[in-house]
Amino acid sequence: MIQNVWLIPAFPLAAFLINALFGRRWLKQWTGPLAAAAIAASAVVAIGVFLEVHAGALRTTVPLYTFISVADFHVDVAALVDPLSSAMLLMVTVISFLIHVYAIGYMAHDHGFWRFFSWFPLFVFAMLILVLADNYLVMFVGWEGVGLCSYLLIGFWFERPEPAGAAKKAFVMNRIGDWGFTIGMITTFLVFGSMNFVDVFDRVAKDPPAQGVLSLICLAFFLGATGKSAQLPLYSWLPDAMEGPTPVSALIHAATMVTAGVYLVARSTPLFAAAGPVLAAVGGVGALTAIFAATIALVQFDIKRVMAYSTVSQLGYMFLALGVGAPIAAMFHLITHAFFKALLFLGSGSVIHGIGDVQDMRRMGGLRSKMPLTYWTMVIAGGALAALPPLAGFWSKDEILGSAFKNGYPILWVVGVFTGGLTAFYVTRAIWLTFHGQPRDRQLFEHAHESPRVMTVPLLVLAAGSVLVGFIGFPPDNGFLHAFLRPAIEAAGAVAETGTDWPAFLIFAAISTAVGVGGILLGLSMYSRGRPEPAAMSRAAGPYYDVLVNKYYVDELYDRRLVDVAKAFAGAAWAFDIHIIDGLVNRLGWAIKLGGSGLRRAQTGIVGNYALSIVAGLLLVMIVYGGYATGWLHR
Amino acid sequence: MSLDDLNTVLPEVVVTATACLVLLADAILDRKLARFWLPLLVVLGLISAIFSGPITVASHTAFGGFVVVDTFTAFFRVLFCILAIFATIVAPEYLERRAIPAGAFYATILFSTVGAMTIALATDLITIFVGLELMTIPIYVLAGMARRDRYSNEAGLKYFLLGAFSSAMLLYGFAWLYGLSGTTTFVGIAEAVAKGGLTDGATLVALALVTVGLAFKAAVVPFHQWTPDAYDGAPTPATAFMSVAPKAAAFAAILRIMIGSLGPLGLDWSAVFAILAAITMTGGNVVALVQGNVKRMLAYSSIAHTGYILAGVAAYQAGASASAAVLFYVFAYGIMNLGAFACLIYLDLDGTRGASLDELNGFARRQPAGALAFAVFLISLTGIPPTIGFVAKVFILQPVLDAGLVWLAVAIALNAALAAFYYLRVVVHMYMYDVDANAPRLLRTDLLSAGLGIAGLAVVVIGIVPDGLYRWALQAAAPFVR
Fold first, then answer.
1. Which residue of chain A comes nearest to B157, CA vs CA?
2. How many domains, in total, are found in chain B?
3. What is the pLDDT, as a whole number, of residue B409?
4. Contact indicator for B117, B246 with CB cutoff of 8 Å
5. Whole-prediction pTM value?
6. Between chains, do B204 and A607 touch, taking CB under 8 Å as contact?
7. Mutation test of the interface with chain A: which of B140, B154, B165, B431, choosing the one with the most A Cβ atoms within 10 A?
8. What domain range is B27 assigned to?
9. Measured at the alpha carbon of residue A615, what is the angle toward residues A614 and A620, in degrees to the nearest 5?
10. For a surface tag, which of A111, A516, B185, B299 has the fewest beta carbons within 10 Å of its beta carbon?
């Protein structure tokens, strides 16, 4: 199966080509099932590859072809199949498949159905290339492809101004990150003479370059990761990306795109481990993002925005894990998060779909009776997000926090635990406002209905995953996933094998569960019994509440200040362009025109002048050759 | 002349025979039949020419040493035939619209192709000169083929006068070389100049004359001034062909002569070529920037591309990778530039020549397939991945750096950035501007769209999988490696 690993991206690519070429005229509604079937085929191959890797094929390079080979610059398009990539492949294809199935129902009435199901598999294709790449350059191709597809899909409803603006924002912020990636990639090539993962990591192990150079490379790559994975300071595109159709949000948040940054850092573990201090910075940024985004999520009223900030926050946990030297915990959380976050998004989408495209939770309420399936699956996902045992999120988040403490970062641990409480609170609030209490908009409530089966079945499957996936990491620190991933990451000497430390685990679990339950109880009490009264709380919090509602004014800061600066710079550049460059160019063109018109006056006409210039050129060439011959000019 | 000699040049014989057949068929067939059969005949003839010659061979001489068939020849034969096929496919609808005699047009293209192929065969100054003239004289005719269009007449005449002038210069240079060495074979000349070096005054004159003569054929600044007028005035399908095939042939001649026979003076001419390359790419790009007419802009852009290719020649000391880069770039340039000019045929309605930027407004809505193809060619000409133009630039940059010409590599990079402005401006006009209310209706051009579709696909596919073509180019460059 591993030799056929290229089939995995080939299927979505084929689906894209077929749908894009024949979708509008001929296939129409068949484009959806076709795309889903293609992803299913990829998932089957991915399962095969995964089993084979599990059976002991620890590292296989599957070459596809040589891209460029000139002198000492050599780039192969090849797949690196190891535990890390095979786990990612499996996760990406399975989750994407479920989202594709769901989208068939969700997008059924959209006039751009075929267009949607052209871009959708292309998005998955780009992500799969990113995951499969065995060198930074090919990874960059997938990286850019993911960025492009997210632009197309976030702006899918481009007739409205908000999605178009959100798409542009996502693209620009990602470009900033891509710039970091490019710098990292070029520096890597200059330092190591190769962009191939295996070569680079071998070199780092045997003959590490200067600390400063290594730090530069890692910081650059990390900048790239913050762009794709929506970390501070490049996170603000992700909440805006909610303007896209909900399946797109689910795909971006769970299976593709945002996990790319985490994967990049996890893939580059040997580099980051060798760079030392940069790794700590990764953890710090992660922890800061986690608490920062969680506080914003506390007060949002758009159901999808709550989930969006939650994703930013959870990604912060993953970077925290990477930063404290626990890449396996990061990957673990990436996988569990993919399940429950996909479910939360698809559940939100089901609600939005069921009440006619309303996203404001202030107009919902009491929907539990109308949409029981959506409600129960959302509760499971919410529990997993709040890290209640024994749901999936519990195992992975606890491992991250435990590693933070054990590896000597108690402050990050405190931040993480506290953020866990916030997480539990905002998810309780979101579910309560949506499903419980009295309906706040009667008309919406009357028309509410459960979604069709093509949408609810994926919800059920994801709910099962949200319950069970955590057990791949059981017993803690020493589960199936650990045994599976360890060879990929240990090969670089980054992670040592540890057994389960039960007493420590129980203590950490007890603390974070207590904080989580505290958050849930606070939420329940505030929103079900009105104590403490939410309005009073917000009034008491006063300016702090305003700051949160306004998302720390970051958008304003970026728009007013940074964009102003950028515009001023652009204005200066424009002036430079107009006056200096265009001036020069215009002068030049003017000079040529003048020369032309001057020469035209001569009776001989232009041809003669052309001939004259040839002769003049000949004389110059002769003089130069003569200079070389006599040594008067240097070559 | 033995049968073996003829067999050696079988592809050239096939193309010549096809040209004669086309003229014959044009006289016999009535209008309706001719419209269908003539292009088909040309394409079939060219395809059989491709397959009648070997793709890879060890070097094989014929006609008493006047002609050689090696991997280099094979590469260029295929390239010229592909370009001629492409130029034929895009032309019929235009020729009919403009009432240009189709049979004569196709036959002229074929004769020119034979000339270009002859250049690739040359081992001798005489063969190469015959090839050059056989290639360019039909091109003069092609440029002036729209008899009632005064711009076309002007283009043909100017090109002819200046072409004759530069041919005379080249021939004069050849005469000096013969005087120096007493032979016209490349090998003999190489031996002779290796002894004397550049200090010999006669060698100096010969080298300068040959440099300038060849530079004219390739449209190197400052010997380029015929280019915009000729490209601009000629009927657009003719422009498409003459902007690529003669240039490719000129570089075939440059490699054969400069490396094959004047290689011992490489240190000297490569320094001059490096300077000329920088001047050419910058000059072409700067003037292209201020053009409002896209056809003229593309003419200047083709001068800029000459500069990039010439940089590959100037880096010849880097070895096989330099010549291979030249061959790859010439191939890439051929497809993308022919395609870009051909895209203007859509807009070539009555009374226009080329298209102003405003005429391209909203082109994507009027002709989605054509606009997409045009965008692909322009992106490729800019050098953005994943297109053949991008990899071609990478292949050029590597030997330029290896040869120690860092400043030239920087010049290439800066020029590519400069060029992005005017190429992408066209894309912006096509995709972001609204159609003019009184824009004329476009005619049906299915054959053109099909041809451009295939070429656009090739540009992207080779951009993603370039290694096969590059290996072939490396093989083809092998005769120049010592």
1. A607
2. 1
3. 92
4. no
5. 0.80
6. no
7. B165
8. 3-480
9. 95
10. A111
Integer Cα distance of B229 and B143 in angstroms = 10
Evaluate if residue A596 carries a pLDDT over 50: no
Tell me the nearest-neighbour CA distance from B453 into chain A, angstroms.
13
Whether residue B207 and residue A625 make contact (CB cut-off 8 A), yes or no, is yes
- 3-state secondary structure string across chain B: CCHHHHHHCHHHHHHHHHHHHHHHHHHHCCHHHHHHHHHHHHHHHHHHHHHHCCCCCCCEEEHHHCEEECHHHHHHHHHHHHHHHHHHHHCHHHHHHHCCCHHHHHHHHHHHHHHHHHHHHECEHHHHHHHHHHHHHHHHHHHCCCCCCHHHHHHHHHHHHHHHHHHHHHHHHHHHHHHHHCCCEHHHHHHHHHHHCCCCHHHHHHHHHHHHHHHHHHCCCCCCCHHHHHHHHCCHHHHHHHCCHHHHHHHHHHHHHHHCCCHHHHHHHHHHHHHHHHHHHHHHHHHHHCCCEHHHHHHHHHHHHHHHHHHHHHCHHHCHHHHHHHHHHHHHHHHHHHHHHHHHHHHCCCCCCCCECHHHCCHHHHCHHHHHHHHHHHHHHHCCCCCHHHHHHHHHHHHHHHCCCHHHHHHHHHHHHHHHHHHHHHHHHHHHCCCCCCCCCCCCCHHHHHHHHHHHHHHHHHHHCCHHHHHHHHHHHHHHCC
Nearest CA-CA partner of B347 in B431, B424, B448: B448
> Choosing among B211, B220, B405, B432, which should be mutated to test the A contact, i.e. which has the most A CBs within 10 A?
B211
Mark yes or no for CB contact A616/B268 under 8 Å: no
Record: contact B466-A592, CB cut-off 8 A: no
CA-nearest residue of chain A to B200?
Answer: A629
* Alpha-carbon distance A471 to nearest alpha carbon in chain B (angstroms): 42
Q: Do A611 and B467 touch (CB under 8 A)?
A: no
Query: A24 to chain B nearest CA, in Å?
Result: 14
By Cβ distance, the residue of B161, B272, B391 closest to A607 is B161
| Residue B463: closest C-alpha in chain A | A67
For B156, which residue in chain A has the nearest alpha carbon? Answer: A607
CB contact under 8 A, A73 and B465: no
Tokens of B328: 């790859």
> CB distance A585–B289 less than 8 Å?
yes
Give how far B213 is from chain A: nearest CA, Å: 9
Please report the residues numbered 124 through 153 in chain A whose beta carbons come closer than 8 angstroms to any beta carbon of chain B: 141
- pLDDT, tens digit, for every residue of B236-275? 999 999 999 999 999 999 999 999 888 888 888 999 999 9
The tens-digit pLDDT sequence of chain B (482 residues) is 688 888 889 999 999 999 999 999 999 988 888 888 999 999 999 999 999 887 667 778 888 888 989 899 999 999 999 999 999 999 998 888 888 899 999 999 999 999 999 999 999 999 999 999 999 999 999 999 888 888 888 889 989 999 999 999 999 999 999 998 899 999 899 998 888 777 788 888 999 999 999 999 999 988 888 888 888 888 999 999 999 999 999 999 999 999 988 888 888 899 999 999 999 998 888 888 777 788 888 999 999 999 999 999 999 888 888 999 999 999 999 999 999 999 998 887 766 666 788 888 888 888 888 899 999 999 999 988 889 999 999 999 999 998 989 999 999 988 888 888 888 888 888 888 888 777 777 777 888 989 999 999 999 999 999 989 999 999 898 887 65
Task: Mark yes or no for CB contact B466/A68 under 8 Å.
Answer: yes
Instruction: Show the tokens assigned to A171.
Output: 């693209």
